[in-house]
Amino acid sequence: MDNTQPIIVKRVKKVAGGHHGGAWKIAFADFATAMMAFFLVMWLMSSATPEQKKLISGYFQDPIGFTESASPHVIDLGGTPTPSPDRTLNPELEPAQSEAQIDAQQAETFAEQIERERLELLLQELQNKVDENPELQKFKDQILFEITQDGLRIQIMDAENRPMFALGSAQLQPYFEDILLALVDTIAAVPNKISISGHTDAKPYSGRGDFGNWELSSGRANAARRTLVIGGYPEEQIARVVGYASSALFDRKDPFNPVNRRIDILVLTKKAQRSIEGEQSDAVEGAVPAEGAAPVVQEPLQAPQLRERLNIFEDGVLQFSQPGGR
């Protein structure tokens, strides 16, 4: 009998790295989903209003919505059906009058934001025009732009060796006319109305007892108005022309500083415009806000030549050359 038995050799084929199955993929997918949901919740919580958070809290406390603080809808986007009459919602959360007030406030805030952006763009455009225009660059130090709560203020100031007006009069110097005419198209590009004001330094006007810095500043403001209108600015867009004399100095430390003699053009916000129109409902446009001050005549001139039309008060009322009151 042959006792020889066959020898069986098993060869195990090893796979590099081993095999762990696909369970880890499912776990990782669950983890990624959970993280995405977490970040979505965090984003919603940061962007939700306090009223929406309260409604969400009420929904999870009572999904059926029978309690006073609950809501039948987690986030109401405006397309949900109206709750039935027997469902009493919290009057503090959804009063019609309160919603109307909130909507009006939001609309006004949005309008103010758009208006401010428009004025900022206008400021940048005016600044670019000054930087790019060789003629305006000569007077760059005399032109100041700034955003205020009432609008965009454009201040054109005197210099010691470059006054904007003839001494003691409202006759514009030719280069000041050129500055106004160069800026008028850009200012007219926005629908906002403007207010024009004239200012003098604190040096008293000498020459006539019934004529002083109040009349002089209002006359110069009106001369600037006439220049803008002749340059193409709509006259109906001018809300106010006023003279302040030396009551609103630019340099209060030095009342006689030439920069105090200036013309302000304020591109008004709607709120400031409403305030002015309310204050002047019964007043003459261009009146001087001072006791005893003379009103300024507003009719445009009709002379054939531009320079002649810009030289206002041709009857000699303001054509003085006395020192003081510059």
Helix and strand arrangement:
Elements: H1 23-47, H2 50-61, H3 96-132, H4 134-137, E1 143-148, E2 151-157, H5 174-187, E3 194-199, H6 213-230, E4 238-243, E5 262-268, H7 270-279, H8 306-310
Parallel strand pairs: 3-4
Antiparallel strand pairs: 1-2, 2-5, 3-5
Helix pairs in contact: 3-5, 5-6
Domain OmpA-like: 152-271
Protein name: Motility protein MotB
Subcellular location: Cell membrane
Protein described:
Keywords: Cell membrane, Membrane, Transmembrane, Transmembrane helix. It is found in: Cell membrane. InterPro entries: Bact_OuterMem_StrucFunc, MotB-like_N_dom, OmpA-like, OmpA-like_sf. With 326 residues, the protein is α+β, with helices and mostly antiparallel strands. It has a domain of 172 residues: 60s Ribosomal Protein L30, Chain: A. It has a 5-stranded mixed beta sheet. Helix 5 packs across helix 6. It is elongated, with a radius of gyration of 37 Å. The N and C termini lie far apart (143 Å). The C terminus is likely disordered.
Give the termini separation.
143 Å
Can you list the strand order of the major beta sheet?
A: 1-2-5-3-4
The CATH topology annotation of one domain reads as 60s Ribosomal Protein L30, Chain: A
Q: Work out the helix count.
A: 8
The sequence of SSEs as H and E is: HHHHEEHEHEEHH
- The Cα radius of gyration reads 37 Å
The CATH first-level class of one domain comes to: Alpha Beta
Approximate shape = elongated
Percentage of residues assigned to helices: 25-40%
Mean of all residue-level pLDDT scores: 76
Low-confidence stretches: 84-89, 284-324
CATH architecture designation of one domain: 2-Layer Sandwich
**Major β-sheet annotation:** 5 strands, mixed
CATH superfamily of one domain: OmpA-like domain
Structural class: alpha+beta
What is the count of β-strands? Answer: 5
Share in β-strands: 5-15%
